[in-house]
Design goal:
- By secondary structure, this protein is α+β, with helices and mostly antiparallel strands.
- The chain is built from twelve helices and 19 strands.
- The chain has helices at residues 4-11, 16-36, 82-90, 138-156, 192-201, 212-219, 228-235, 276-316, 320-345, 353-366, 387-408, 453-465, and strands spanning 39-45, 51-58, 75-77, 94-95, 100-102, 105-116, 119-129, 178-182, 187-190, 241-246, 251-259, 267-274, 350-352, 374-379, 384-386, 417-426, 429-436, 469-474, 481-488.
- α9 (320-345) runs antiparallel to α11.
- Bound molecules: adenosine-5'-triphosphate and magnesium ion.
- Adenosine-5'-triphosphate (ATP) is lined by residues 328, 399, 403-404, 406-408, 436, 438, 440-442, 450, 452-455, 481.
Length: 490
């Protein structure tokens, strides 16, 4: 699909400011299409003065479209649509008495010159599918009157309002709630939806004739109001702006478009939208996040308590082996706590695992008998992992590193050691090789036959929890041992 800017550059003489103006117009023209029950097409005059390019199109959400096909990017030579030529040449609104027939659909066509800085820079064609037009109700008459005021403003160069771009996704639409106020800010007409919105705010009677700003002020508690100036400017219909107000139970966005078809302020169109559900969902998401983080924080604290209890118990043990076993348990609990600590600081349920891995590496060497002699070095990056994967992988890494430190090096020797953790993350797969340059596996070692606790934990976690593979063998080139963990990741 071609963009406005592309069309402007390749076919027209319009400048940067013209483009900004047209973009502002397009940011708001849904309102005009909806109020008119009509399709809008933006036509740009070409450089040679031979025709127009369709640079934008907007269908009404309030009525049937007059265009089944998209017209964007099409070219219309002069003479084909005299109304368009006339509106552009004379700079005035032009309207045909008789409808145009398109495939058995009567379409009323009007042309609105778009004026900026005194010059006509484009033409908006308004096409109403007359099959959708019924005997007008008050709502329809109010819509059409307001649409007429806005199109006048386009032709006079008063609309769009410079610098007042509103492209919030939650900006109110005509169908959400439409009010028309007069020059004093009194309600002339309120659509049924607008009335319902104000009823939800606590209004009991009708809105007609009431000053909108004061009425709203009486319904909305001060802490849910914007400053006084914004409130009276927006709800009084004096400023082209939007604001958010509400009560404890209801949140609204209010948007005002002041009307001055002939230059003097005659009132405004005010759109209101009940965004209570949207805001509640926003809040729920925030609290859910905070709750998850708090849970991780508490799990970490609980794990630290458990570790402290085990440590206490270990000190009371007479048997050296029992002491060692409890200290191992302390370490295992500690590595899970590290993961939860990281998760408690993360906003999402995923973690950058590099930091966790590096902290585990430090923890394992610090508490071991080989102390500062052996260093752990990471190559490559784990990237971001889901928290379940991270928890299991942290345990696996702790055990494997612990084995390298504990079994690879002689605690009585002085010679330094290096443990290399080589990480490779490809789409769908994470592979971690832990290689030490120690004394190697005992003769006849068989992973499948091994029944000791450490490797059993590792194998269970890698195979069942992570759905991956574990292998253990000599490092190549040796000396030393290489543990390879391969797991599928998202
Ligand atoms: N990097 C390594 N270098 C040398 N031997 C290793 C290495 N990794 C494992 N081993 C051998 O594998 C055996 C089994 O390891 P495993 O972790 O299952 O038990 P463990 O470390 O002896 O006790 P724990 O249950 O406390 O971990 C070890 O006793 C050791 O002989
Ligand atoms: Mg072990």
């Amino acid at each position: 699909m071609v963009s406005l800017i592309e069309l402007v550059r390749s076919h027209t003489d319009l400048d940067e400011d013209d483009v900004v103006w047209l973009q502002l117009l397009q940011a708001d023209w849904q309102i005009i299409a909806d109020l008119s029950f009509a399709d809008l097409v933006l036509w740009l005059p070409d450089r040679e003065g031979k025709g127009f390019w369709a640079a934008g199109q907007m269908r009404p959400t309030t009525g049937p479209t007059a265009y089944v096909d998209d017209v964007l990017g099409t070219y219309l030579p002069r003479g084909r649509k005299p109304l368009l030529d006339l509106a552009y040449a004379e700079g005035r609104l032009v309207r045909e008495g008789d409808p145009e027939w398109r495939d058995d659909v009567p379409v009323r066509v009007e042309s609105i010159p778009v004026r900026r800085d005194g010059r006509v820079i484009a033409v908006v064609a308004r096409n109403t599918n007359l099959l959708g037009v019924r005997t007008p109700s008050r709502l329809e008459l109010s819509y059409l009157q307001t649409a007429a005021d806005l199109t006048q403003m386009i032709a006079q160069g008063y609309f769009p309002a410079p610098g007042q771009r509103s492209d919030h996704a939650d900006s109110p639409r005509v169908g959400d709630g439409f009010l028309r106020v007069d020059a004093e800010g009194r309600v002339v007409y309120a659509s049924p939806n607008a009335l319902s919105v104000f009823r939800r705010l606590g209004l009991s009677g009708d809105l007609a004739g009431l000053p909108l700003a004061e009425t709203t002020r009486s319904l909305v508690p001060p802490r849910r109001r914007p400053d006084e100036e914004t409130l009276s400017a927006v709800l009084g219909g004096r400023a082209h702006r939007d604001t958010e107000i509400g009560t404890d139970g209801v949140s609204l966005i209010v948007r005002a478009v002041p009307l001055r078809p002939q230059g003097t302020h005659i009132g405004a169109l005010v759109l209101v939208r009940d965004v209570t559900d949207l805001r509640r969902r926003d809040r729920e998401l925030v609290t859910k996040d905070a709750t998850i983080r708090e849970i991780h924080h508490r799990v970490k604290n609980n794990l630290q308590t458990v570790a402290a209890l085990l440590r206490l118990q270990a000190r009371r043990m007479d048997s050296e082996s029992a002491k060692a076993a409890l200290e191992e348990a302390v370490r295992r609990v500690g590595s899970i706590a590290i993961v939860h600590e990281t998760l408690s600081q993360a906003v999402e349920e995923t973690v950058d695992f590099d930091e966790i891995a590096d902290r585990l590496g430090m923890m394992v060497t610090e508490v071991s008998a080989v102390g500062g002699r052996v260093r752990v070095r990471r190559e490559g990056s784990y990237g971001v992992l889901r928290s379940e994967t991270a928890t299991a992988l942290a345990m696996v890494l702790t055990e494997v590193l612990q084995n390298a430190v504990e079994h690879g090096y002689d605690p009585d020797s002085e010679s330094p050691g290096a443990i290399r953790v080589h990480v490779e993350r490809t789409p769908g797969q994470l592979s971690v090789a832990v290689e030490d340059d120690g004394q190697g596996l005992p003769d006849g070692f068989d992973l499948d036959a091994s029944t000791s606790l450490g490797l059993s934990i590792v194998r269970t976690l890698v195979e069942s929890e992570l759905g991956g593979r574990l292998s253990l063998g000599p490092a190549s080139p040796g000396p030393g041992t290489r543990a390879l963990v391969e797991v599928p990741v998202e």
